């Protein structure tokens, strides 16, 4: 415990000596994770979090302000429930885990402020997460506006952090920010300022001096609330919930402050906690706490792989020549989809697109089409425009897409986290589901439980992805480390459309720093309900047969995920199971060689399996070997600098 921790704990103890009630505790089913909730002598609500007896969060604040009505001090405890067991089992149509089980302990505290107005606090603690939300009870015909949250996360001052800076609204290319496309401030002491002065995006990763890990995030964000970010509260490690900037999305047309008919329910504030990084990477807490699927007929939702022309050939390639070439490529590779990007409406036209989509479908490949989200909220010139910004426009377009046999849409350039933007996301997903259309959001917010609630949302970008590596050398130089941070941060909370797997060492005069083995491994290390591979038709004949075979078979939705080893920015090795097969991907984020050993004891019936390994060979080539598990207990792999490997056990 730090000096700050000792002093703070002493002060809290002294203030609690005259508290309204002594600390109330709630523990996880296994007893390791614990939250303590108290009111001090001023009636302020505070909490602490411990894991295995070690402090994760020092005393942190609760509370909200609703239209001048304070719910953060002068509280009295009206009632406290006993411990209730929460248990649910559900299936995900895509993601890191197919069959999910959530077990938690729950308590409900009813508080009243000095004016007698009631606020309820709900806590749920599972073996890997602490979650809480606020509820304002029902008052007939009434609405409430939340002007501020006092919620804070007070980490010990010697904690390290991996945080993604929030961009300033209406900045960047054609005023499209914020779009969650920055590099992380990696392994930095807590309490530092964000470089843009707008706080930090969720999720945020933290490592305490006691070697506990915590990921702060939120879930079950819906049209009745905004998405939040983390703001610096002091120089010592405290962060608080922040609301969007006034300029985001449609600017002053939409309020920053969420307004909701009572009863008002905030999203879950979630802290995923563990003493190993696997507790973070493998967690399904964001889906566990999200609302169940609101789509009854999910038969049209099919995860898969996609060919995509834009990464290599940019805007001008949205034409029939490239479309036909990439259709041939997708068909050869056995991929389910192909994405045709911006300007298809001008370069191909709707009539010819109808013909092409039907032709592609007849050959076993379904088309996904790009759209600009905007009415007027950004200056991005790409078309089609004005097709997704209102329900009537969307539904006409979705009806046409269904008619021509298109599978989905990629919708770009949202630029904000206000309640109105959350409502737009949700309504797009609902309208799309009515016409059996799958959705990919780009230039967008991070997943906030929607991959469970609306499983037709197969993926979101919300990452500084592969396209940035084609823009300038600085981004390409940072890619190895950046890619080794994402499995521990962004990709934990939901699907991520990084658009991985690029074999050409040079794109648009930019030299990639990653090896072929590294790029191939991203197909396993990164999870997305649809993977848009950065390969082109000309590479088909250049790839070894075993690489072609691998790319034809690699899944994108998984039955199980097992974190093997790694550290943010340095190394990530992840195993994922599909059916009876295990796929292992490993990437080296550092410019130095590494020898790693992988314990294979987690794999059932190992003695009956063959092991196909693809690593880096000499002079930017692949190397392949096949082993048999009969006498194997571990797998030893040599990683090149910024290199990687894949292994398939079946």
From TrEMBL:
<dbReference type="InterPro" id="IPR014718">
    <property type="entry name" value="GH-type_carb-bd"/>
</dbReference>
<keyword id="KW-0732">Signal</keyword>
<dbReference type="Pfam" id="PF14509">
    <property type="entry name" value="GH97_C"/>
</dbReference>
<dbReference type="Pfam" id="PF10566">
    <property type="entry name" value="Glyco_hydro_97"/>
</dbReference>
<protein>
    <submittedName>
        <fullName>Retaining alpha-galactosidase</fullName>
        <ecNumber>3.2.1.22</ecNumber>
    </submittedName>
</protein>
<dbReference type="GO" id="GO:0004557">
    <property type="term" value="F:alpha-galactosidase activity"/>
</dbReference>
<dbReference type="InterPro" id="IPR019563">
    <property type="entry name" value="GH97_catalytic"/>
</dbReference>
<feature type="signal peptide">
    <location>
        <begin position="1"/>
        <end position="22"/>
    </location>
</feature>
<dbReference type="InterPro" id="IPR029486">
    <property type="entry name" value="GH97_N"/>
</dbReference>
<dbReference type="InterPro" id="IPR017853">
    <property type="entry name" value="GH"/>
</dbReference>
<dbReference type="InterPro" id="IPR013780">
    <property type="entry name" value="Glyco_hydro_b"/>
</dbReference>
<feature type="domain" description="Glycosyl-hydrolase 97 C-terminal oligomerisation">
    <location>
        <begin position="557"/>
        <end position="649"/>
    </location>
</feature>
<feature type="domain" description="Glycosyl-hydrolase 97 catalytic">
    <location>
        <begin position="314"/>
        <end position="463"/>
    </location>
</feature>
<dbReference type="InterPro" id="IPR029483">
    <property type="entry name" value="GH97_C"/>
</dbReference>
<dbReference type="Pfam" id="PF14508">
    <property type="entry name" value="GH97_N"/>
</dbReference>
<keyword id="KW-0378">Hydrolase</keyword>
<keyword id="KW-0326">Glycosidase</keyword>
<dbReference type="GO" id="GO:0030246">
    <property type="term" value="F:carbohydrate binding"/>
</dbReference>
<dbReference type="InterPro" id="IPR052720">
    <property type="entry name" value="Glycosyl_hydrolase_97"/>
</dbReference>
<feature type="domain" description="Glycosyl-hydrolase 97 N-terminal">
    <location>
        <begin position="26"/>
        <end position="292"/>
    </location>
</feature>
<dbReference type="InterPro" id="IPR013785">
    <property type="entry name" value="Aldolase_TIM"/>
</dbReference>
